[in-house]
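The material for today's practical consists of a large collection of protein records. A record pairs a protein's sequence with a compact description of its fold. Instead of coordinates, the fold is spelled out as a row of discrete tokens. We will come back to this pairing of sequence and fold again and again. Here is such a record, shown just as it appears in the course material.
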Amino acid sequence: MAPSRDDTMEGRLTLRAMEVFAAVADAGSLSAGARRLGAAVSTVSQQLSGLEHALGVELIDRAARPFALTPAGRLFQTRSAQILDDIAKTRAALAALDLAAVRSLTLGLLEDLEGDVLPELLVRLSRTFPRCAFTVETGYSHRNIEALERRQADLVVASDVSDLPDGIERHRILRDPLILIAAEGVIDGDDILARLANTEMIRFNRAQPIARMIEAHLRRHRFAAPGRFEVETNHAMTAMVERTGGWAITTPLGLLSAEWAGRVEARPLPFQAQARTLYVCTRRCVLGTLPAAVSTVLRQILADGSVRRGRDLMPWLGDTFRVLDGEKVET
């Protein structure tokens, strides 16, 4: 009888088994790793058992609660991550010979880019990569970076993420300043700061990096305002400002993504300016020239769309709201 495929693979170290182990180790449990991979726990367990058999060591301490790797498992986690990155670099180098050969790309974007930017980005990328399947997920900056580290995303957009992990390549794309938005009449006349200090402030959910940036900026200016509401999106923030007669701090990109049509007033901050920077991020040297190419496309889309429209609607923005040059920053 001819051996089955499973018999011929027994005792061999496979790429799939290494990818399964990496997912489980990063997720912190078999079940979480299985969810991340979209596989059954039994399948994941079988792959890990086969990997341990091939290596001749135990990688997971199955008696430990909570989940833990053995010393051999911790060593293999480091070495296998290097191997998987090397394989990704090789694939990128091969793809660079023929960009049309790229088969899949997972992007992590900020919510502010969904409306105007995302459709145009995908249309342009689909022309460059005609055989590529695209997956797009939206999340906070720090969540996008985590997805990048865990190899759940190939390329992400993030803003001013502090303490970036080693090996992350960043390409600047946009300067997006903080601005004031308020219900009609709130910021008319003199002594704006006094009125703001006695008017309800709508805040972003504090899990978001932009929320922490705004709060730190207010503390630097020793400014406090009443506020009972924290929201997650610019759509919700704009609606709440209008309905409550309050005010908020956001950015031009965020305000435009909320389909702003003059329902609230927008003005410069009444104290020192501050801005966030948006980056395209990826693992260093893994995707070759692709991140720089995607960054260039994003700059073109933003310059022709959001930046131009923002300056038309808010002429006082000037060049405080602008695309940035293509300087690459590595950590």
User: Anything to note?
Assistant: The mean pLDDT is 84.
